[in-house]
Amino acid sequence: MVVRASREPACSAYEPGTAPLPWPCSRANGLAVAILQAIVYADLFDYPLKAPEIHRFLPGWSATLAEVEGCLAHDRRLGVRLGAAAPFWFLAGRDHLVAVRRQRESSAAALWASARRYAHLIAALPFVKMVAVTGALAVNNPSSAQDDIDLLIVSQKGRVWLVRGQAVLLVRAVRQLGVTLCPNYVLADHVLDFGPPSLFTAHELAQLVPLYGWDLYRRILAINHWVAHYLPNAGAHGEGEPEMGALLRSSKRVLEAALSWRPGDGLEEWEQRRKIPRLTQEAAARGGAGALFTPDICKGHMGDHGAKILQRFAEALAAHGLPAGEAPHG
Length: 330
Fold this sequence. Notes:
6-stranded mixed beta sheet; 3-stranded antiparallel beta sheet; 2 domains; single chain
């Protein structure tokens, strides 16, 4: 069940882990609940939010930034549930998260330099169509300056495992420099549906930061239009991508031409035979319900992180007086 993104209140039952909590009351009450939901979700990651971020990640509720700011300033129910230290908002009693966020933003600045440098090199590899940063770094929330840099890579159809193999070689090389790249999601450019829909996956798609392949990024958002049901104000990133140097462009074209037929097909099939059974077995042994390994997809999410987050979110809503069908009382 997906809550309709609307300027009117939604009136349907809450299903934990599938869609945001509806609120059968006035628009003002619904907006206050959506604001609290957004902050509760971010709190799962120890992440206080600025007003524009609350607006962007309002679950299932379409509103203007001015409406969000007005509700934050004047809604008495939020006043007893939230704390503020300009420009951040957080759950009451969680003011220490402001220092945590500032420290993590400092760590992120160092990681972004590495992410951009090595994403540029990955983009220059043959058959790479898009490179994007995902996970904690995408929202400037790494645990330290040595945190992993999670990457989503989109390849040309029929070259997923060849692209992954090349990326792994780069991962091993930069590890010697103290940089941990994690290209844990590689997929072909014809399988861009990231369903089944969920609030967690909507966040992941809304938050990812493309560093190469903006046309493909826009295709992903168009194909996964259901994200707007969960996060109607999220929109897309509006940055451009740096121009790839002439030498890298030339080498990429030459290597793609050399590997477009039998040599590339043979390497691709060899990597598939070596890696798909091994990684599938590893995922099963580790209980990796979120992992998937096929000729077109290498999704190395060994822990079912999304399901765990959605369960914690449902529990946190209940803990903050927001079970289905019950209004918060200020």
